[in-house]
Amino acid sequence: MSETKQPISELVAAHLKDNPDFLVRHPDVLQAVQLEHPTGAATSLIEKQVSHLREQNQSLSRQLNQLVRTAEKNQKLMTRLHRLTLELMVMNDLGAFFDHLAESLKTEFEADILNITLFERQVNGRSDTPIFQVRREDPDIAPFEPQLAKGRTVCGRLNPNKMNFLFGNRANWVQSTALVPLGDNGLLAIGSSDPARFYPGMGTLFLDLLADVVTCRLALDEPEQQRRTA
Fold first, then answer.
1. Which of 47, 75, 103 is the last residue in one of the domains?
2. Position 84 in a domain
């Protein structure tokens, strides 16, 4: 029974892979190898390798520049979060706390629309601060249970029921949302008319840290009876 012969091209390819220094040891072969350029002109293997390395270098440079821009953006966000945290810490009144939080999110952090939903907590802020009080067992909260259980910010598009609960008659205008759980205290929703503003997989460290600030502040104002029975 005769063995199937392997094509010579495969043998050559296998030999080159097993001996990566072959062309270094045989420069005459390297010089003789030519590759067809897309334009039709022939180019030597060395020229092709140089061109490939140049393209790789450009790609790495673009990636590095993107990383630098991301790092700079994150640094600015952390600086702004630090400043906002210091500003919020000195506010004894809980209503003023949420007034300033909402104002900062809408202006400095480019939020188009907000919803601050608190469970069993009455907070008196300004009329333009979107604070809502609901019961924890309210049926409208049930669709948010997976996000609340996760305990981390979720970004993207929400289904119509959730959108209507959060943003009412402006729900159709909102194209992307960041949903920020506030522990056992409620949730914060930030809406945008830009569908690319909040997207699945985006970094949410800033918003998660902000949620920690809010939950800590709410804990300071926890009703006395609730503290005694905890």
1. 75
2. no
What residues contact residue 161 under an 8 Å CB cut-off, 6+ apart?
Answer: 143
Q: Print the domain residue range for 131.
A: 91-220
- Asked whether residue 101 falls in the same domain as residue 192, the answer is yes
pLDDT > 90 in the chain, percent? 44
pLDDT at res. 118: 96
pLDDT at 27: 72
Residue 227 within a domain: no
Domain total of the chain: 2
pLDDT band at 229 (very low <50, low <70, confident <90, very high): very low
Q: Does residue 228 have a pLDDT over 70? A: no
Q: Do 103 and 165 reside in the same domain of the chain?
A: yes
φ, ψ of residue 119 to 5 degrees: the values are -90, 125
Same domain, 97 and 132: yes
Is beta strand 131-134 parallel, antiparallel or unpaired with respect to 113-119?
A: parallel
